[in-house]
Amino acid sequence: MNVFVIAEIGINHNGDLKITKKLIDAAAAAGANAVKFQKRTLELVYTKEELDKYRESPWGTTNRQQKEGLEFGKKEYDRIDQYCKDAGIEWFASAWDLESQDFLSQYDLRYNKIASALLTYRELIEMVAKEGKHTFISTGMSTMDEIGVVVEIFRGHNCSFELMHCNSTYPMKNEDANLRVMNTLGEAFGCDIGYSGHETGRIVSTVAAALGASSIERHITLDRSMYGSDQAASLEVGEFARLVEDIRTVEIAMGTNEKFVHESEIPIKKKLRKY
């Protein structure tokens, strides 16, 4: 089974379509299967008090100005939709509220995503499951019982899904990866298990692929020193491309469960086997 590789652009575009297009091009060139964004209706996700708090950013001095600067609307997503079609790569997004999920439904997207932070948002989970699109469900910050509720909802709506093991720290320390939980999730829920990583390097994600991850999601950026809360947990373009190459190498190297003499070994066997 091929690993489905997701390049998480998220908000690393910093509200700039030029940056967005460069990241889409980089993800497509690297061989990723899809790019992912995040969609929020600010007034539904944040309180007025939170939005009015002081925060310096390239867009002003309040949380509202910062978040408005990072948020794309229909004009931008129309262009993203066409650009991804031209680039030959899928795109989808994690909605952080019901209005945003409804917004995304106007596009012919093949996938949905439940962010770890929204895993207990029952109304959103129901809405996404009813759409019937294959959904990637991140499980950071979540208990087995909380995950079980979501699995039950998706199966109740006969909606295909896969769970994604995740640690929701940005960036994540390698020792916090706890990749063996992938097996625990697979045994408990009998479904495909992917990995959504927030570490700084490639090795943890590569090992996740070797452990049988059905999907790997990593943030991508042009430069980790750029403005943004997700940049530190992201891979720059060249490193993301090397990760995809690592994953594809792992897929080939894992082979099958069958023990046999490879055709390439036969001449060596004839030469070296004397007894």
Write a compact overview of the structure shown.
The protein is an alpha/beta fold and 275 residues long.
In words, what does this structure look like?
The chain has twelve helices and eleven strands. The chain is an alpha/beta fold and 275 residues long. The protein has a single domain (4-272), classed as TIM Barrel (Alpha-Beta Barrel), CATH 3.20.20.70. Helix 10 packs parallel to helix 11 (237-254). The protein is globular and about 80 Å long. The chain starts with a strand and ends with a helix. The mean pLDDT is 97.
Secondary structure layout:
Elements: E1 4-10, H1 17-30, E2 34-39, H2 42-45, H3 48-51, E3 54-57, E4 60-62, H4 63-70, H5 74-87, E5 90-95, H6 98-104, E6 111-114, H7 122-131, E7 134-138, H8 144-156, E8 161-166, H9 181-189, E9 193-197, H10 203-210, E10 215-221, E11 235-236, H11 237-254, H12 266-272
Parallel strand pairs: 1-2, 1-10, 2-5, 6-7, 7-8, 8-9, 9-10, 10-11
Antiparallel strand pairs: 3-4
Helix pairs in contact: 1-5, 1-11, 10-11
Task: Give the key terms.
9-stranded parallel sheet, globular, alpha/beta, TIM Barrel, 12 helices, 20% strand, two-stranded antiparallel sheet
Mean residue pLDDT: 97
Query: Which stretches are low in confidence, meaning pLDDT under 50 for 5 or more residues running?
Result: none
Oligomer: single chain
- CATH-defined superfamily: Aldolase class I
Number of domains: 1
* CATH class descriptor name: Alpha Beta
Portion of residues within helices:
40-55%
Shape from CA axes?
Answer: globular
Q: What are the secondary-structure elements, in order, as H or E?
A: EHEHHEEHHEHEHEHEHEHEEHH
How much of the sequence lies in strands comes to: 15-25%
Structural class: alpha/beta
Q: If classified by CATH, what would the architecture be?
A: Alpha-Beta Barrel
Terminal Cα span: 39 Å
Number of strands: 11
What is the count of DSSP helices, taking H or I runs of 4+ residues?
A: 12
How is the biggest beta sheet arranged?
9 strands, parallel
CATH fold category name: TIM Barrel
If you compute it from the alpha carbons, what radius of gyration comes out, rounded to the nearest whole angstrom? Answer: 20 Å
